Structures are given as C-alpha cells and as structure tokens.
Amino acid sequence: MKNVFHIFEDRGFIEQATDRELVRELLENPTTCYIGFDPTAKSLHVGSLLPIMSLVHMQRAGHRPIGLVGGGTGLVGDPSGKTEMRNILTLGEINENAEALKKQLSRFIDFSDGKAIIANNADWLTDLPYIEFLRDIGRHFSVNRMLAAESYRARLETGLSFIEFNYMLLQAYDFWYLFKHYDCRLQMGGNDQWGNILAGADLTRRLEGEVIHGLTFPLLTTSSGIKMGKTHKGAVWLDASLTSPYDYYQYWINQDDGDVERFLGLFTFLPMEEVRQLGRLKGADMRTAKEVLAYEATKLCHGQKEADHAREASQQLFGPDREKSPEAAPTYSIGQEELDQGIPAYILFEKSGLCKTRSEARRLISQGGGYINGQRVKTFEQAININDLQQDCLLLRAGKKRYVRITQE
RNA sequence: GGAGAGGUUCCCGAGUGGUUAAAGGGAGCAGACUGUAAAUCUGCCGGCUCAGCCUUCGGAGGUUCAAAUCCUCCCCUCUCCA
C-alpha cells in the first residue's frame, strides 16, 4: 500500500508538517492520528470537509483516525484565526452538537471494531484539577513563546481573555492525553491550528520524551481569495436537512474554474491521473470536470442514490430542455384556496423560499430576475393562479440558477 | 481603582442636531455578456399592506419642532497608569 503521506502530498493536503521525513516514516506503519472538531453548530459544513477527507484517507491506508469532538474546549472558545471572541456555548448545546457531529462523521469514517474512534475532550478536560494542571502542564508553557504565536499576536490587538489564552494548553493537553491513552502520534488540522498542534507535540516531548507529529492543511479559499462554503443561502452544511443534496451538488458545480482541479484532488478519491486530466480541460469543457467534482463530492457526503438524483435534477434543470421537466427541482406546495384566488408573484417567491423577504422578492422581480415557467414575471404583484399550472405544477426561477417547483396541496 | 479612546446597517468604515435608511469599500443579489465559470459594465442591497408607512446607529431615560449626532445613568471593548 502506498504511504498516505505521498497521497497527501500528491493531492495537495499538506501545508506544514513538523518534520516531513519523520512523518512519512511514521506513516509507513499503522498509526493513530487525530483531528479536533468544534461542536459550535449542529452540523459540520464544507469547511470541515478537508479534515474529514484526510481522516478517510488515513483509514483507507490502514491507520486509525480519532475524531475528537471539542466538547470541553468548546466551553472555552478558540481564538485561532478569529478576530472576535466566539460565543461560549452551554454544556447542553455542546453535548447536543457533539452527538450530531458523531453521526455525521460516521458517514465518512467507519467506526466499527475500533477502526476509528470518536472521543470527546469534555471527558477529561471538565474535571481537571486546576492546581495540578498548573503544576504539571502549565509550567511547560512559556508565555513569551505563546505571545509570539500568530494566532495570539493578532488577538493582542483586539483583546484576548485569559480563558481563550488557555486554549492552547488545553489542546496541547488533548494531544498528550490521546498519545497516552491511544498511542496517538499525529495530529492534523487546518493551518490555523499549527501553533496548537506544535504545543501538543512539544508538551508530549517534555512530559514523555517522545516525539510526536503534526500536519496542517492549507486553509481553503477560493481562487478569488474568499473563504469557502458560503452561498446565497448561507453556509453549505453536510447535513441533508440543512443543505439538500441538490443544493450541495449545485454548490460544487458552481465553483470557479481555477479551483476545480485542486478540489478534485482534495474532495474526491479519483486517481490523480484522472484529476489532472480533468484539470486540463479548457473552456466550456470544464463543465465536465465540474460535473465530476459535484457528483463525486455529493456521493461521498450523501450517498450514491442522492448523488444520482442531484445530478439528474441538475441536468434536467440546466440541460437543453430546462424549464420543461421541473420534477427535479425542490418542491414547495401551496394551498388550493390560495391558488384559486391567485397569489401575487412576490409573495409566492417569498413563500417558496427563493427570497428571504418580500422586499427581496419585489426587488428580484422588478429587476427582471423572477421567472415562472421560463417566462419573466413582469410585475411583482402579478397574480399567479390555477391557470399558470402546467401539468399540475409550475416552475419558479430566481435569477439564472435557483429553482423551486410549486405544486398544489 | 485612575486617565483617555471607542461601541454605526452582513463585515470594514464615514458621519458629530434637520438635506441621513445613514458616504465609501468588501461580501451578496439581479441584468447584460457567457460555459450553471471568471473578468467586465449597469442596477439593487433594513422591513412592510411600498409613489407611503414602520423600525435601526451598545442599553435605558432626557433636552429639542427635529437626535446616530446634545445631556444623564448603565453595559461592553481598547490604550496608558497601578
């Protein structure tokens, strides 16, 4: 089996490593590694996809991944890469989120038979005795050195509370703890975690005299330098009830040309020869590569069946017969009474979820961005009624890409 | 604890009594162009029962015909001093 380190290198996962040569050697043999996930929301979003993919690669290569849910650290708040102090969550919220995270990770990683582990650092952090912690752990940290860390330096400008300042110690403790209890010798994470990862490796060296390692991934931005994962509707979630597989598929197909090859490497398991080949496509052919990316990414997250649906739906809605076969679009049903009476177009656009407010719907339609069955809506108060139904439904479109099918209840 | 600075619409950031739903930029949306891409140009960008009305400038009161702008108290942040 190929060393995962080469796979990571080849596919563009690596930003920094504590020692490339040693990490590569380490990964010659089955190794336990971990990545922390913050339980700040009830679902992960595409921002966490890169770490997840790395764990999948690890598992496929015969290593043992640990998904660490930051139940304990979530009670504190991580300053890394944030300019504002984050909201501190209650224990209840965190546990709820932690549960949900576990479920999501299981879609990507096989947790059976100890092939992977899910851990929650609340289990060992919440009961830490303060004095002992200071004595045994705190003494190994130099404040001078911590302040030199980029993540803290930035926060020094805007203010940094003591509890946040301790985050690094806690995460370092996590790494040591996982090393101690699971023989975990590699921590991975986004490049914003570099300082924290180093701290953990450092702590373990001091406490145990053992050298353990860290690896970071590039922070993902699109070619235009914007953080990934935001759309008109907000964050792109991995949970199908928050972001539908169709929207998820669409998210990927709408990526910039310049990102496609990189994303194929990171977010699919296609062989790299194929990825490079797809990346070489020029002009409109690039769409093929995007379709592959969208399909593969959706398949990984939501399964083949959903991916097939999403692809079909997209092909119908964006193919040569667009507007003709709207079964594929997300559906919203409306009461018969309302339809009989006729409903103003802008209200329908708002109700169907295409616009967040009625004002937005008015604006959209006034600017010529509202369509019904492929026809531009002329005025926002235009009444939509039963006569507009074609084969029992009508197709609403906002702008060029966003569709909703309206059916009668 | 003392002294000073500051909290403005999604973000950054102007505004220091009426002409301010609040400059400018970013993000976002729409139109044109296109390949469900990018770039570019144009328009939009608090809400609503929308030629009008309502709600916003940390919070609560007050002055005034009129306040984001003035006063009082409170909350929070930053800087310096201890």
Outline of this structure?
The chain is α/β, with parallel strands linked by helices and 409 residues long. The protein is built from 19 helices and 15 strands.
Topology of helices and strands:
Blueprint: H1 4-11, E1 16-17, H2 20-26, E2 32-37, H3 49-60, E3 64-69, H4 91-108, E4 117-120, H5 122-125, H6 130-136, H7 143-148, H8 150-158, H9 162-165, H10 167-182, E5 184-190, H11 194-208, E6 213-217, E7 230-231, E8 234-235, H12 245-253, H13 257-267, H14 272-279, H15 286-302, H16 304-318, E9 331-334, H17 336-341, E10 343-344, H18 345-351, H19 358-366, E11 370-372, E12 375-376, E13 383-384, E14 393-398, E15 402-408
The chain binds one RNA strand of 82 nucleotides through residues 157-159, 223-224, 226, 230-232, 250, 253-258, 260, 283-287, 290, 314, 317-318, 355, 357-360, 362-364, 366-370, 398-401.
Describe this protein's structure:
This protein has helices at residues 4-11, 20-26, 49-60, 91-108, 122-125, 130-136, 143-148, 150-158, 162-165, 167-182, 194-208, 245-253, 257-267, 272-279, 286-302, 304-318, 336-341, 345-351, 358-366, and strands spanning 16-17, 32-37, 64-69, 117-120, 184-190, 213-217, 230-231, 234-235, 331-334, 343-344, 370-372, 375-376, 383-384, 393-398, 402-408. With 409 residues, it is α/β, with parallel strands linked by helices. The chain has a six-stranded mixed beta sheet with strand order 1-6-5-2-3-4, with helices on both faces. It has a five-stranded mixed beta sheet with strand order 9-15-14-11-12. It has a two-stranded antiparallel sheet with strand order 7-8. Helix 10 (167-182) packs across helix 11 and helix 15 (286-302) packs antiparallel against helix 16 (304-318). The longest helix is centred in the first third of the chain and has 18 residues, at 91-108. It is elongated and about 80 Å long. The chain binds one RNA strand of 82 nucleotides through residues 157-159, 223-224, 226, 230-232, 250, 253-258, 260, 283-287, 290, 314, 317-318, 355, 357-360, 362-364, 366-370, 398-401.
